[in-house]
């Protein structure tokens, strides 16, 4: 009777040792899982933070539009027109193979693009379309700040009728 009782106790101790070992393995797996998750979050955070953040381009922001109208007059109107009408025959390539400056009003296709594309085109120039592309659209990086570039685009947007503005907003949200 007493000897079988001792054997049962030994079995119970062995079992609980086994359970403790299993708990340790599970704990280690959990640490590895959460450690991996933290490393992944760090990498993702790094990638996201390195992306240049797109400044807000808001046609209903009076101060931004006001700054933008000055930037537009000084830096864009010479090609895109004081009334945003673009150059004559803007859809036809010139003899040198380059395109004239398109209008930025509702008759052009500026509003067919999302904010990010408009910002990138203004900052890095139409050269960013594809390497070696020949264009007269200059890159404004280093000549205008991101804030000024965004303002010039906010001004352009502010001249569009509400219907065109909301169409562009839909295109913009679809392109993100
Ligand atoms: C020296 C002339 C010139 C100046 C100055 C200029 N642009 Fe342009 N821009 C062009 C030309 C030419 C194109 C057409 C590019 C092409 O497709 O080759 C263009 C295209 C664009 C486009 C793309 C339009 C579309 O429908 O795809 C945007 C946006 C734009 N310009 C914004 C600006 C802004 C904003 C400024 C002022 C900060 C500016 N540009 C100043 C010549 C100019």
Short description:
By secondary structure, the protein is mainly alpha-helical. Helix content is 59%, strand content 0%. The longest helix has 49 residues.
Layout: helices, strands, pairs:
Elements lengths: L1 H49 L11 H19 L34 H10 L21 H13 L3 H13 L2
Helix pairs in contact: 2-4, 3-4
Bound molecules: heme C.
Heme C binds next to helix 2, helix 3 and helix 4.
SSE sequence, one letter per element: HHHHH
Number of helical stretches of at least 4 residues:
5
Relative strand content: under 5%
Question: Segments where pLDDT lies below 50 for 5+ residues?
Answer: none
Main sheet summary: none
The set of bound ligands, ions and cofactors reads:
heme C
Protein structure class:
mainly alpha
Mean pLDDT: 89
Q: Please tell me the CATH architecture of the largest domain by its name.
A: Orthogonal Bundle
What is the name of the CATH superfamily of the largest domain?
A: Cytochrome c-like domain
Give the C-level CATH assignment of the largest domain.
Answer: Mainly Alpha
For the secondary structure, the number of strands is 0
Question: CA-to-CA gap between the ends?
Answer: 77 Å
In angstroms, what is the radius of gyration? 31 Å
**What is the helical fraction, as a range of percent?**
55-70%
Q: What is the third-level CATH name, the topology of the largest domain?
A: Cytochrome Bc1 Complex, Chain D, domain 2
Count the domains.
2
What is the overall silhouette? rod-shaped
């Amino acid at each position: 009777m007493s000897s079988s009782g001792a054997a049962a106790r030994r079995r119970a101790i062995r079992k609980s040792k086994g359970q403790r070992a299993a708990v340790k393995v599970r704990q280690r797996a959990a640490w590895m899982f959460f450690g991996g998750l933290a490393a992944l979050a760090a990498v993702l955070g790094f990638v996201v933070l390195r992306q240049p953040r797109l400044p807000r381009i808001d046609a209903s922001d009076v101060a931004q539009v006001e700054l933008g109208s000055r930037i537009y007059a000084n830096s864009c109107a010479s090609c895109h027109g004081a009334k945003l009408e673009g150059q004559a025959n803007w859809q036809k390539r010139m003899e040198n193979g380059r395109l004239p400056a398109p209008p930025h009003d509702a008759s052009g296709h500026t509003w067919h693009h999302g904010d990010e594309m408009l910002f990138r085109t203004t900052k890095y120039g139409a050269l960013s379309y594809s390497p070696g592309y020949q264009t007269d659209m200059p890159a404004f990086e280093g000549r205008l700040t991101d804030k000024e570039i965004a303002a010039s685009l906010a001004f352009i947007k502010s001249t569009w009728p509400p219907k065109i503005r909301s169409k562009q907003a839909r295109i913009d949200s679809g392109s993100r």
